[in-house]
User: Fold these one by one.
Assistant:
Number 1:
Amino acid sequence: MNLEDIATVKSILSQPQKIVIIPHKNPDGDAMGSCLGLYGYLKSFDHEVAVIAPNDYPKFLKWMPNNEVVLNFEKENSQAKKCLEEATVVFTLDFNDLSRTGQLHTILEEKEADFIMIDHHQQPKDYARVTYSDVTMSSTCEMVYNFMEYLGGLDKMDKDIATNLYTGIMTDTGSFKYRSTSSRTHKVVADLIDRGANNMEIHQQVFDTNSPSRLHLLGVALSNMVILPEYKTAYITITQDELDAHDFKKGDTEGFVNYGLTLEGIVFAVIFIENKEEGIIKISFRSVGDFSVNEFARTHFNGGGHDNAAGGRSDENMDVTIEKFNTILKTYKLQLNP
């Protein structure tokens, strides 16, 4: 953040505000961690604060401190709309395009308020009064920590805030193994631990609580894996019938795409997941090295994200989507085999 933006935010927050904090649709650990961390910080200044998630999110995130305040826009629509109508300030966290909020999209586009964006994805849209965007950051949670520091508010950091921010940094860095994890990231994480975040307990809550049906679904996913050594690529498909047969719950496929990258010689991993309710194939892309899945997703599958982690979608059925992917992949053979 530059000095002008910091001064603007300080001015906006210098008097009591009605604030709404919003993550992207299908929020992940970084989205919910940053929202709940910022919630705790803003509440300490006696602002009236609401967190509105566009839809539901995985059970393995619902243990997080202050999770009970989150309004699900799909299930608590009237209450959420009332909060939005009254809001004087809207924070949008972990996304940079209002279209990422699903049914909230139209409401936010028409909303008159001071918008403040905090996000680390590429190509931000210009909708906010204050835009804090930095694609070099490990996570939005690290940026919320910086945001608090810029405002001189780290003394407000309690155990709950530290726990939420640690959770988001841990999940968005793949437990601190991704390239975006910097020495600064580790310094921030160390401070969060010093302020009360229990790193072992957080890891157990997020990663070590499985149901038998989820593990069986993982078995199906791995058995469906297709390996294309000539393209250094591995992809997984999961149909709606396979999800239904294993009592699928939101978040159950989290991390499945990463298994492809554990194979020797693989630099590009993809998972295709059928969602009949929305009529789409949801796609997650991962890579190691210099192959940009952000550009791949933006160019071919209506998506985007980071250079090594991105998402997309297809409106075709699974067979057509896979055929399209395989055709496109042939044009990237040289990039995948530099």
Note: Residues 3-207 form a domain with the inorganic pyrophosphatase (n-terminal core) fold (CATH 3.90.1640.10).
Number 2:
Amino acid sequence: MKKMMKKLIGLVSGAVPEGIALLVTRIALAGIFWRSARTKVEEGSFLTIKETTFYQFSDAPFNQVPILNGDLGAYVTTYAEHFLPILLVLGLATRFGALGIFVMTMVIQIFVFPEMIIWWQTHIIWVAMALVLVVRGGGIFSLDRLAGHKLG
């Protein structure tokens, strides 16, 4: 029984299973932020920000975020929510993309929705996924891995 458990653990802890898990994590986390990004732009456009988005960032609770309130917050958030998920899906600069999403999540939690219930229902999952990617990287199914091999 002990031998069988060791073999099973060996099978699921290899580079390929880890790579699959990291790929799914990258796609899942990217999907959350991509869908949020798409709600901030005009339908049919790629990056034309809606007027309601500007209003949203000038109105409470979004105007509580230091520096990133008003128009600047709308631009930075919308562009980051488009750019960072692309990095994650490609597995390109995965740690950077995941760290950016981690920071965005913490800003949302601390300044926009500080209620603890949102932390335990949603944000802790985003933080966990982002931190796994920061620590482990993109895995073998990523452009990071390909670039690493090309760069030695």
Note: The two ends are 41 Å apart (CA to CA).
